[in-house]
Amino acid sequence: MTRKNAFMWIEAGLCILLVLILSLGAIGIYHEGLARKAEDPLTQIYTVEAVVKAIVPAIPVLILAIIMAIAAFIAGKKDEKASVVEKSGVFKRKKNSTDSYVLPALSQKGKLLRRILLAIAVICLLAGVWNGSMTDVWNKARMICMECIGMG
Amino acid sequence: MNETKSMTWWQAHGPSKRRIIQLYCALLYNAQVKGFIRGEIYTGKSKMVCVPGLNCYSCPGAVGACPLGALQNAVAASGRRVGFYIIGIFLLYGLILGRTTCGWLCPMGMIQELLHKIPTPKIKKGRITRGLSYLKYFILLIFVVAVPLWYGIVRRVPVPGFCKFICPAGTFEGAIGITPGDPGYLGSFGGLFTQKFVIMLFIGLACIFCFRAFCRFLCPLGAIYGFFCKLAFVGVKVDIVRCTQCGTCVRNCKMDVKKVGDRECIHCGECMAGCPVNAISMKAGDYILIPSAGDRKAMGEELVRKRKRVAAVFWVVALGLLGLVLVFCNI
Question: What residues contact B107, with CB distance under 8 A and at least 6 apart?
Answer without folding.
Answer: B22, B25, B26, B29, B30, B53, B54, B55
